[in-house]
Hints:
Blueprint: E1 4-10, H1 16-29, E2 31-36, E3 49-53, H2 58-68, E4 73-76, E5 81-82, H3 87-96, E6 102-107, E7 120-122, H4 123-129, E8 139-143, E9 146-150, H5 158-168, E10 173-182
Amino acid sequence: MHDLTIVIPVKDPPDLQRFVKENLEVLSASKKVVVDSGRGEQLGRLPNTLLFQRQVPMWEARRIGYEQVRTPFTLNLDADTILPNGYVLDGLNVLRKNSCDAVAIDYDPPQGHYAFGTSIWRTELLKKLYDYPPRAVEKLIKVGEQEWITAFQNGFCECTYMWARLIRSGGRLETLGYKATHLKKHCSRVF
């Protein structure tokens, strides 16, 4: 996977050891750019890894990571995600055949959208399109006597935004039947 760079934004991951262990094959075979906003130092010790320690939102961490990518393809990989076996190789094969511009999958259980945080893109197009978060556009909504001012970015997730940007640009999205797994934070309740 010499033509792939993995961009990993990290902010207080729920189980970084498990993330590394279960994604080790993909992590070992590719270049990585890690933007650590908390508790991701361990990833910096992986071979072929650039580590940036910055206290930034996830979307800004992605932007910082994308600036470093020099390979034709970029895998977005959030530090709370376990990739399914075969997804990366199959996704790269689809991209290499020039049949699409991005390859996405969903999670198990499905979240109702394809996950931007586990997508593989043509780097050139990703860098061109990525401008998240969208600029705020205020709009007055009236329903009867009620009035609200809304902002474009309220409730507009990064996944939905980027898929819309891709399609509006004339780009092509392929979805594969794989399902990624979200790692959950462990919490203890005090009664």
